[in-house]
Specification:
single chain, 313 residues, alpha/beta, Four Helix Bundle (Hemerythrin (Met), subunit A), Rossmann fold, 2 domains, seven-stranded mixed β-sheet, three-stranded antiparallel β-sheet, 11 helices, 10 strands, 43% helix, binds ribulose-1,5-diphosphate
Amino acid sequence: MEVVENAAKKIEDMEVRGAARIAMFAAETLKKYAEMVDRNFDDEMRKASERLMNTRPTAVSLFNAINYVMSYSGDSEEEKKMSLIRRAEEFIFWVDTAREKIGRIGAKRIMDGSTIMTHCNSSAALSIIKQAFDDGKDVRVIATESRPRHQGHLTARELADHGVEVTLIVDSAVRYFMKEVDIVVVGADTITVNGALINKIGTSQIAITAKEARVPFMVAAETYKFSPKTLLGELVVIEERDPEEVIRGELLNHPKVKVRNPAFDVTPRDYIDLIITEIGAIPPEMAYIVIRDHLGYREFGGEEITLSPDHYD
Ligand code: RUB
């Protein structure tokens, strides 16, 4: 289990972060562990998947990845192992191809000469921006720093290294700069059945500000970011992280001061113009259809949901 424990710690400590990356990493880890297990395959894999599932609660991509890989079949342990490995490879392929397709579809919505605002560090959102740039469009990006973990620095570096001109701003400067923005593009940790977006804390403030300024707000989300659990009535758990990420020193221990650090927030669908998925650009109202038809979830017993996406080929 050491390989699983190390991987789980990397996700918890955010050495591996972002909804797509943690999903892919979980699939890779389950594959690696399956290759090592030589007895009690079902038990060992169940323990491994539970450990990985309990690392970060908000991004449904992790849940969908683990569920997809763990829906293996076979009679013998060897057959089960082969089936799990094949499913892990399918999921990893799904992640890679979906990001590329989202880039191609979303880039068409970016006009030449645009200023794009983005928040945090989303591989899907950046795929759109990079594709627009690669298509020869003159684009400029305003990136929020995304306190407290400053994922905006990663975004600024990644885009700048790609050749895109970036302006880094503090999160509280979003409204100040909104008048310069033509479109907002962000990623997703989870899309609920009613089309709400759960993404990095601060996303909903940007969405409200964009609506006020009549600036389109576009979300880049692979279909495995849509939550079948919300179809069953479950609420999305918002991860609350260590206050030490926000502040260190005396104030943290003051008896009258409480420091809170929610990592994500909820943007209602009314603030979202379009969700770019690998199966097309859809309005948030279509979330139910994506979960029902395109995630292709099968009958589930009790709490179990089995995903069988059919569009990775
Ligand atoms: C990352 C975050 C990203 C989404 C989408 O939060 O909120 O916007 O995960 O990213 P954290 P991607 O840094 O806390 O993991 O498009 O890469 O899946």
